[in-house]
Specification:
By secondary structure, this protein is α+β, with helices and mostly antiparallel strands. Helices cover 15% and strands 25% of the residues. It is built from nine helices and 34 strands. A hairpin with a 7-residue loop joins strand 5 and strand 6. The protein is globular.
């Protein structure tokens, strides 16, 4: 490992190239005379803030990075500054100003003497973490990893710094945008380590008075992409990730930028939308009143927006009279916030707006206190504040596993009809991150890029199962650093209830819960005796079907059962197109059996389902018509218990198809199709069936293409009497068959031949993974390592 000299040289070079303006007092662009009430709050104070253009509208409120080399890099809008405004003299001092870059996300130190922030020097640069004194001296760069974005830094009570980063390159499952997780480092920028591993985005960190980090988290498992963004908490070492508010509230689409109001248990935050910028209504919530919905909202601006909490959809908060952003509570009554001075919403188009800094109070004040040439953001009072307690580390950097325990799986909500003794097994499933994306997409629940499943977004890896003790307890070992969820299974390995959000463990962490979806505001009843599982050594996961953990594939795992027992009666039949076809033949999207099971409604699955928690037994193997056919010995067919379990498991994994996000056909239909758009157009001319329409419409049609046996494709029925047209159409499908053989698209992971761009994305992921592992090894050995040491 290199010495820290390389880091010092890097800092010297960077500081020489950045623009740091001397701290000469200047009049603000538009000085504002305050009312007496505002003066009484702000007199003698200074306000730190950012001046810049509003972020360009994009796919999601987390899409503000515009990282160079990513899909939306050209939405980056340069120019801006970080300034301090003196309320009494009405003068402004500039700390950092840039014409070609952007400064963002400032956070003051506990003593009020330093500012940590994120800055990008130009389009081709990435956001890195910097620190500067409030007098404008001592600018230094703390992070410098190339090709990753570091934003939202926050000082921690233990001397560390937490921030959001794209250092584990992953993409949102419902589109193509780079995501970020929580990382932490030492105050000098050394020993960077990941403390959040959810599958999408973790950002806008702040501190609670008990030392925990509050952050907003976007992640979904078997549920709608647009309403799965809530406030969570975590210890500064990455242990004990826990829901705080809003995870099962359908509207707002996002609960963002939470900060605790000093001296109270209240939290001020932003109620935003999915497809919007990180702004919306300003809300104050009291978690003692509820962890979801309207009950916990004690104040909201605009006032009328209370009527859409829980009643609108993922984007209803786009249509407010004013938009709020970056709330900063001064005390239990007063809040500084960025707010629109004027605003003309325009849907998906670029809105016309300008934002200034407002002083807002719980008792009715809402007053503009500062306006600039550009919009203003991130207001904070420059002053010392109380440092919360430092929570001791409860993890290590050497183990590869942690331990989960459950006291009683029968204790909880949404367990109607579940009797004690019904649950025999607990299955642990990983929802892996998406490491690449395709140019073309499938319209499932949102935009899959590429096609993954009929409706939901995720692939699934079964890590294993453990038995549940007779008292409902379980204790087991799980790999650290994985985003996992649990399912309760009955004696036949059918799913009783399933989580639709994820949990994770840091190395060496022990974490547990009372039961399944237990009431988070209730106090658990005292245990008459210690749970049985906690009196035993934690169990290792039993391998599913005796296999090492793997990503589930319909074609690899389900189709062989259908081939053995079903296809002899359920194959393509030119004379009976109403017949259920369960053949393995691939089509442009999935395969014939998979499409037809959905089209014929033989499975009851949530797909990308609703925000609310679903009742036990309400979906999956217990609720599906397919199970009744399996268990009833349809037409005398008798499956082995193992074969039944495979089909049950597929349904209980929400009917997944592809095991991987990578594909061989990046630029073709839905990112999976082996024939070109020109060939698809020609097929439409010949047959009257436009395969391109099937990714959006006509979901009631059974599979129209059989690449394995092109001549059997139903789409050819109308031209079977025209030999010339028929042969031309078959020849096009034959090309698809040949391409699938040469470059398998990902139906089975071991046979995948990814396209070149996906190979590059996977290579970057592996490179970053190795760098992260090297940092952790250094920390474990008691050393120090900086970004510059890895370049």
């Amino acid at each position: 490992m290199k010495t820290s000299k390389s880091f010092v040289l890097l800092i010297a070079t960077v500081c020489a190239t950045l623009t740091s303006t001397t701290m000469q007092a200047q009049l603000p662009k538009k000085p504002i005379a305050l009312t007496e009430k505002a003066k009484s709050v702000l007199s003698g104070k200074q306000i730190l803030y950012i001046e810049r253009d509003q972020y360009a509208p994009d796919h999601h409120n987390t899409a503000t990075l515009f990282q160079y080399g990513e899909i939306n890099q050209n939405s980056f809008s340069p120019g801006g500054a970080m300034r301090i405004y003196d309320v009494d003299s009405r003068t402004t001092k500039t700390l950092v100003e840039t014409l070609d870059g952007v400064a963002r996300d400032p956070e003051l130190s506990f003593d009020g003497k330093k500012v940590i922030f994120s800055m990008r020097k130009n389009l081709e640069d990435s956001y890195h973490i910097y620190e500067i004194n409030v007098d404008g001296t001592g600018l230094r760069q703390l992070t410098s990893a190339p090709g990753v974005s570091d934003i939202d830094p926050l000082y921690l009570p233990d001397g560390g710094i937490v921030f959001t980063s794209t250092r584990q390159p992953k993409y949102c499952m419902c589109n193509r945008h780079i995501m970020g997780n929580l990382f932490r480092m030492n105050e000098d920028g050394s020993n960077i380590t990941q403390i959040g591993v959810s599958t999408l985005f973790e950002g806008h960190s702040s501190l609670l008075s008990d030392g925990r980090i509050m952050y907003d988290r976007w992640e979904y498992v078997d549920r709608n992409f647009g309403d799965a963004q809530a406030l969570w908490t975590v210890n500064p070492d990455g242990t004990k990730h826990s829901i705080y508010y809003g995870n099962n509230t359908a509207c707002p689409g996002g609960v963002l930028e939470g900060r605790q109001m000093p001296g109270t248990d209240l939290v001020v935050c932003t109620f935003g939308s999915c497809h919007d910028r990180p702004w919306g209504a300003l809300a104050v919530i009291d978690r003692k009143l509820g962890v979801d919905g309207r009950e916990a909202v004690v104040k909201i601006w605009p006032a009328e927006s209370i009527n859409i909490v829980g009643n609108g959809d993922l984007d209803t908060f786009k249509w407010l009279s004013n938009m709020y952003e970056d709330p900063y509570p001064i005390d239990g009554n007063f809040i500084l916030s960025s707010r629109t001075i004027w605003f003309k919403p325009a849907g998906w188009q670029i809105e016309t707006s300008k934002q200034g800094i407002y002083l807002i109070s719980m008792d009715g004040l809402e007053e503009l206190v500062l306006e600039g040439d550009k919009s203003l953001y991130d207001p904070q009072i420059v002053q010392a504040r109380e440092k919360p307690m430092a929570i001791p580390f409860m993890r290590n950097f050497k183990d590869t596993t942690g331990r989960f325990y459950i006291e009683n799986v029968y204790e909880g909500t949404h367990m109607e009809g579940v009797k004690k003794g019904d649950a025999k097994w607990l299955r642990v499933v990983e929802s892996p991150e998406k490491r690449s994306w395709t140019a073309q997409g499938w319209s499932g629940q949102g935009e899959h890029a590429p096609a993954m499943n009929w409706h939901s977004f995720e692939n699934k890896r079964i890590l294993g199962e453990v038995p549940i003790e007779e008292d409902g307890s379980a204790s087991f070992i799980v790999p650290a650093g994985k985003h996992v969820y649990f399912q309760l299974l009955d004696k036949d390995k059918k799913m009783i209830q399933s989580m639709r959000s994820g949990v994770s463990l840091m190395p060496g962490e022990i974490n547990g819960c009372v039961g399944c979806h237990e009431d988070r505001l209730s106090i658990p009843a005292p245990m008459a005796k210690r749970p049985i599982a906690l009196n035993k050594k934690p169990m290792e996961l039993t391998k599913w079907m005796g296999k090492e953990p793997f990503k589930f594939s319909f074609l690899e795992h389900v189709q062989p059962v259908l081939d053995k027992h079903c296809v002899k009666c359920h194959d393509f039949d030119e004379k009976n197109r109403e017949k259920l076809v369960l053949a393995k033949d691939l089509n442009p999207f999935f395969n014939a059996a998979y499409v037809n099971l959905y089209v014929n409604k033989l499975v009851s699955l949530p797909g990308g389902g609703p925000a609310n928690i679903l009742q036990a037994y309400s979906w999956g193997s217990h609720a599906s018509k397919l199970t009744k056919l399996i268990d009833g010995g349809h037409k005398g067919v008798k499956l082995s218990q193992k074969e039944k379990e495979i089909l049950y498991t597929w349904m209980d994994l929400n009917g997944v198809y592809y095991p991987v996000y990578e594909s061989a056909f990046d630029n073709d239909l839905v990112g999976r199709c082996p024939i070109t758009f020109e060939e698809i157009s020609r097929l439409a001319e010949l047959t009257g069936v436009n395969l391109g329409d099937l990714r959006y419409h006509n979901r009631s049609m059974q599979a129209q293409v059989a690449f394995d046996r092109p001549e059997l494709s139903p789409m050819l029925d109308k031209i079977r009497g025209d030999k010339e047209k028929f042969q031309e159409a078959v020849s096009i499908l034959e090309k698809g068959k040949k391409r699938l053989k040469e470059t398998p698209r990902g139906d089975i992971e071991s046979k995948l031949v990814p396209c070149e761009r996906h190979k590059a994305q996977l290579a970057k992921y592996i490179d970053r993974l190795k760098k992260n592992e090297a940092m952790n090894a250094c920390i474990n050995e008691g050393g120090k390592m900086y970004d510059a040491d890895q370049q």
